[in-house]
């Protein structure tokens, strides 16, 4: 499949470029330079098509055309375009992300961990964050829905939802090809062909393919550039089929994404004094120098790891693929029956490069040595998480219709998944020689090590823990929503009520170093509901008030050595908003303010030790989140658009229960808990100017985004380096200049130059505090990048 995709992308692009000179009838979209106002935006925030300005939901909609022009390749770029949103790619993985909206989400990437923000592709739920980062190919739009979406979207949308909507096949033949080259030898070739209606049949299709390669942007002196941290070799394929059979429409979508590369460099930024002293002796013992630095490094050493097949590797591998089949039958003008069937699977083979150093040497316990110690290779923490895999099946039925002043949606939902992972870890625990007896060794052993190694203060213990687990999840739901727009009030008023009942069942097994294998199962039920009231004061001004609830399923912690169960989270959000378009649609201003009461917050207390990276999950928190968002777009002159947004999130922990490891007492530490993965402020301002150049159009787009500092962990008590891995404020400036609609016979050509992180910010973006292991590390923002691209359509 990967080879087929790669050569398919290149051959399709070559076909498009070679045919462009002979094309007689181009049908690429033309720039609308005569528009007198902002264009209308259609969204499916309530599972049916509605105008953005009429739907009583806080939602940001981004068109696929806009995302393509800005070279947005995956979801990690979206926070710079939408308020109150955080998406950060996790270290070691090419496809795992932590996603938070309005302070709610989840940063656990395991194969059985539930998310707090639901991600949907063509109506199909993507259950795992480990497969949420993939190349966005030929999207019609992206919708960011803020606030609980528990009624129409179901469980695990307690913070909100991301909807990715693929572009449908066109009615007539159309082809495009695009290629680009950027700094760090980052290049891609992408193409799409739409067949139009095939012959006289009601069937039309499209196929898109992309191949992308990039060298790393941090120089690992132990590898070639193609294997440096940040390198990537990726293939993506998307196929769409549509059949228009009178009252029945059938849509089938297939997507495939294969990535192989070395994730961003994970740099050690903080250690304990004893840890620094122990590993700091590496160079004198014949190993690599031990480097700890809080400033982003360019030339580094990063050791690899021997994987499960015996290969010494630096890179990681992911494969994501999915199928969706949507049937839409118009039984009568007032009733549409819809079926959405989805099947997806995910595979990951990850090298856990979380050491930030080369091959280190240290003095370790060795009972085969006369001195009970020897010099060996030591490592802060690394491993090979493979295989990590998951597959899922989902089926949804919907009935959408109208009856007089009422519109409704009723549905049934079924979901099943099976997931597992096998994680081979390697780490060196650093122990004071004087404390060996307290670490479980016989006092005679501790005395002997001290006597045979005079002056030795710290000694290492090489450990190779295995963490393996798997499980199943089954979810069933029935849901409905009814809206009333009384004709007596000219449909200015809308009252909406909705509810969803969900039943979840889960099983899990814990294996690896757990002997015997532990098994557990849990079951949860939930009823989520919403009520909203909106009123149109004029054709262009609407206000709404909304109360909505959400539910994040409970479960069993996969990273513990016992059956550690935890209860579901629940949220109730109170929101008011205004949506307006003024001055003949030259100004669009949308405002939303909310208060969210969040109960049973699932807290992951990281606990690294001899068993590797483990944790304990407890329902420790009750939080109130308050904030607002404002989004605006202005067209002061024809061809000039200025847009921007601002988001504010205030986190107030009402309770935060913590078990003191010294006294075993449970204490409330709400007054010192911090918001995790949530910036207090996010903001963006952008401007776009179009200028006709004969038959062509020049377009300049400049965007500046900002967010305040962001913590990775909520509690310093369990993560002593939390302040060291705090992400500082981020400023990002990007720009693109393009010449579009250049006529080539019957084809059109677009050429652009662009730059990102133009101020070359060097901030820390994602950290891990290994706590009792003695160190913390982080990844840093990608340096300034710039490039060129060209697109041809016919």
Structural shape:
globular
Q: Structural class, from helix and strand content?
A: mainly beta
The profile of the biggest β sheet is:
22 strands, antiparallel, barrel
The top-level CATH class is Mainly Beta
Looking at CATH, which topology would you report?
Maltoporin, Chain A
In the residues, how many domains can be counted? 1
User: What is the CATH superfamily classification?
Assistant: TonB-dependent receptor, beta-barrel domain
Q: Strand content of the residues, in percent?
A: over 45%
The overall pLDDT, averaged over residues, is 91
Number of strands: 45
The CATH architecture is Beta Barrel
| Alpha-carbon Rg, integer | 27 Å
Helix count?
4
Low-confidence stretches: 7-35
Helix content: under 10%
Termini, distance in Å?
27 Å
What does this structure look like?
By secondary structure, this protein is mostly beta strands. The chain has a single domain (2-793), classed as TonB-dependent receptor, beta-barrel domain (Maltoporin, Chain A, Beta Barrel). It is 5% helix and 56% strand. The protein has four helices and 45 strands. The chain has a 22-stranded antiparallel β-barrel. Strands 3-9-10-7-8 form a five-stranded mixed β-sheet. The longest helix has 19 residues, at 2-20. The protein starts with a helix and ends with a strand. Residues 7-35 have low confidence and may be disordered.
Question: What topology does this entry show?
Answer:
Elements: H1 2-20, E1 42-43, E2 50-51, E3 59-63, H2 64-69, E4 85-89, E5 97-101, E6 104-106, E7 117-121, E8 124-126, E9 139-146, E10 160-166, E11 174-182, E12 186-197, E13 203-214, E14 219-220, E15 232-245, E16 248-261, E17 267-271, H3 273-279, E18 299-300, E19 305-306, E20 312-313, E21 316-332, E22 335-351, E23 360-365, E24 373-378, E25 382-403, E26 406-432, H4 443-452, E27 458-463, E28 466-484, E29 493-510, E30 518-538, E31 541-552, E32 555-556, E33 565-566, E34 569-582, E35 587-606, E36 615-637, E37 640-659, E38 666-668, E39 681-693, E40 696-707, E41 730-744, E42 747-756, E43 764-769, E44 775-780, E45 785-793
Parallel strand pairs: 7-10, 14-18
Antiparallel strand pairs: 1-2, 3-9, 4-5, 5-6, 7-8, 9-10, 11-12, 11-45, 12-13, 13-15, 15-16, 16-21, 17-44, 19-20, 21-22, 22-25, 23-24, 25-26, 26-27, 26-28, 28-29, 29-30, 30-31, 31-34, 32-33, 34-35, 35-36, 36-37, 37-38, 37-39, 39-40, 40-41, 41-42, 42-45, 43-44
């Amino acid at each position: 499949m990967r080879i087929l995709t790669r050569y398919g992308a290149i051959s399709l692009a070559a076909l498009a470029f070679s045919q462009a000179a002979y094309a007689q009838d181009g049908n690429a979209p033309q720039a609308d330079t005569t528009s007198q106002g902002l264009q209308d935006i259609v969204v499916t925030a309530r599972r049916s098509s509605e105008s953005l300005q009429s739907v009583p939901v806080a939602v940001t909609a981004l068109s696929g055309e806009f995302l393509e022009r800005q070279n947005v390749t995956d979801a990690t770029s979206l926070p710079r375009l939408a308020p109150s949103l955080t998406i950060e790619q996790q270290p070691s993985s090419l496809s795992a992300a932590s996603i938070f909206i309005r302070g709610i989400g989840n940063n656990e990437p395991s194969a059985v961990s539930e998310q707090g923000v639901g991600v949907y592709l063509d109506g199909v739920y993507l259950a795992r964050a480990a497969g949420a980062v993939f190349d966005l190919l030929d999207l019609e739009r992206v919708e960011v829905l803020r606030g609980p979406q528990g009624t129409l979207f179901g469980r695990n949308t307690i913070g909100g939802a991301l909807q990715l909507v693929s572009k449908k096949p066109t009615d007539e033949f159309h082809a495009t090809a695009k290629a680009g080259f950027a700094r760090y030898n980052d290049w891609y070739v992408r193409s799409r062909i739409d067949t139009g209606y095939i012959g006289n049949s009601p069937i039309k299709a499209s196929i898109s393919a992309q191949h992308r390669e990039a060298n790393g942007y941090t120089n690992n002196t132990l590898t070639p550039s193609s294997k440096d941290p940040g390198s990537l070799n990726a293939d993506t394929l998307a196929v769409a089929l549509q059949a228009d059979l009178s009252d029945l429409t059938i849509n089938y979508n297939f997507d495939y994404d294969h990535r192989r590369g070395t994730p961003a460099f994970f740099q050690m930024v903080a250690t304990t004094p004893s840890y620094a002293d122990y590993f700091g002796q590496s160079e004198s013992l014949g190993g690599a120098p031990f480097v700890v630095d809080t400033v982003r490094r360019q030339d580094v050493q990063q050791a690899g790891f021997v994987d499960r097949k015996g290969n010494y590797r630096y890179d990681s591998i992911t494969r994501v693929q999915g199928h969706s089949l949507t049937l839409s039958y118009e039984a009568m003008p007032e009733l549409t029956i819809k079926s959405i069937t989805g099947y997806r699977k995910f595979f990951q083979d990850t090298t856990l490069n979380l050491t930030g150093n080369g091959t280190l040497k240290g003095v370790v316990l060795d009972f085969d040595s006369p001195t009970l110690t020897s010099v060996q290779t030591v490592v802060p923490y690394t491993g090979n998480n493979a295989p990590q895999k998951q597959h899922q099946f989902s089926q949804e039925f919907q009935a959408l219709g109208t009856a007089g002043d009422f519109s409704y949606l009723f549905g049934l939902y079924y979901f099943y998944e099976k997931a597992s992972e096998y994680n081979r870890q390697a780490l060196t625990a650093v122990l004071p020689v004087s404390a060996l007896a307290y670490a479980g060794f016989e006092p005679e052993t501790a005395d002997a090590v001290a006597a045979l190694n005079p002056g030795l203060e710290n000694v290492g213990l090489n450990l190779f823990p295995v963490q393996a687990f798997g499980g199943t999840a089954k979810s069933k739901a029935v849901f409905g929503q009814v809206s009333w727009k009384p004709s007596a009030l000219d449909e200015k008023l809308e009252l909406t009520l909705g509810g969803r009942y969900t039943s979840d069942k889960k099983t899990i097994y814990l294996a690896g170093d757990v002997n015997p294998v532990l098994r557990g199962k849990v079951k949860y039920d939930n009823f989520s509901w919403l009520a909203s009231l909106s009123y149109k004061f004029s054709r262009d001004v609407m206000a709404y008030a909304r109360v909505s609830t959400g539910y994040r399923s409970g479960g069993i912690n996969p990273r513990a050595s016992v059956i550690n169960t935890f209860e579901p989270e629940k949220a109730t959000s109170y929101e008011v908003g205004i949506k307006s378009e003024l001055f003949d649609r030259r100004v669009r201003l949308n405002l939303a303010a909310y208060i969210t009461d969040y109960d049973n917050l699932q807290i992951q207390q990281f606990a690294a030790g001899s068993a590797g990276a483990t944790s304990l999950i407890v329902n420790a928190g009750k939080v109130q989140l308050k904030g607002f968002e404002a989004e605006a777009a202005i067209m002061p002159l024809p061809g000039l658009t200025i847009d921007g947004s601002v988001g504010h999130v205030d986190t107030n922990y009402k309770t935060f229960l913590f078990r003191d490891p010294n006294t075993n007492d449970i204490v409330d530490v709400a007054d010192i808990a911090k918001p995790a993965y949530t910036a207090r402020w996010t903001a963006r301002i952008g401007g776009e100017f179009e200028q006709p150049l004969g038959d062509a159009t020049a377009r300049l787009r400049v965007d500046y985004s900002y967010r305040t500092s962001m913590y990775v962990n909520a509690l310093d008590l369990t993560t002593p380096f939390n302040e060291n891995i705090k992400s500082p404020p981020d400023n990002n400036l990007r720009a693109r200049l393009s010449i579009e609609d250049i006529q080539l016979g019957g084809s059109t050509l677009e050429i652009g130059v662009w730059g990102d992180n133009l101020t070359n910010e060097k901030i820390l973006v994602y950290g891990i505090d290994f706590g009792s292991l003695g160190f913390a590390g982080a990844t840093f923002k990608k340096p300034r990048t710039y490039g060129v691209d060209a697109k041809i359509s016919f």
